[in-house]
Amino acid sequence: MFKTVKKRWRAGVVAVAALSLGMGALVYTQGASAATFPTATGTTKLTATKAVSGSFDGGLKRFVGSGALGTSGQDEGQDPLFTLADGATLKNVIIGSPAADGVHCLGSCTISNVWWENVGEDAATFKGGANAKYTVTGGAANGADDKVFQHNGGGALTVSNFAVSDFGKLYRSCGNCKTQFKRNVVLKNITATAPGSVLAGINSNLGDTATLSGITITGDSKKKIAVCVTFKGNKTGAEPAKLTTQTAATGGDGTNCKFSTSNITYK
Question: What span is annotated as the signal peptide, if there is one (predicted)?
């Protein structure tokens, strides 16, 4: 059944780096309490997925999907607004609502200074092979009822200088894809603003690793956001079993979840 999900805009998203936008600089200071998303220079409505090979610079325009692509909700199988070919770069883009299934990387890719105002199904999905390398740098995501970054293919993802607020999981290694891989994620210089559930969800039985550093968590006085959660991944499509939950208080296990208590700061 179709489920309508109402999401909230949180103006308090905190960006975590000084970002040069090419049209002047907008500076966001790590730990600031009232940073906002950049102002869009215009709006473009996409009626079909935009394929990117090489590099696409959106000039900080807002891109929104049509009903044909999907919605702002969690329906499975929605189309992305952008597909990135192997080696492609997407930069200086604001993704508005409806965002459908965001961005799909079909191989190695770079996502630079991309802002999701209200995440739809997922913000970005990584679908490359075992040796793919994906990079997300700068930008932010708001209002992800489930996942921000979904890792369905193989390879390694690095996310740096990124902010997230009002989210389920910042990163999830696919727990029940028909083809499974050992996956690696690095999360560094991240600001996460509550409410939120998990920073990194990985499949320890498949050898996944999550390495976290420079993590700032704001608005989470009861420390409900889990830093790293391990699951037992499978190929059957069944819901994966949760194995462990690792927090700022416990630190990581050093094998699959790699972080120390000093890597997590609460504000």
Answer: 1-34
In a domain, 201, yes or no: yes
**What is the distance in angstroms between the CA of the first residue and the CA of the last residue of the chain?**
40
- Residue 6 domain-assigned (yes or no): no
Q: Is residue 88 part of a domain?
A: yes
Which domain range does residue 111 map to?
A: 18-266
Q: Do residues 166 and 144 touch, judged by C-beta distance below 8 A?
A: yes
What percent of the chain is modeled with pLDDT above 70? Answer: 84
Is a pLDDT exceeding 70 seen at residue 244?
A: yes
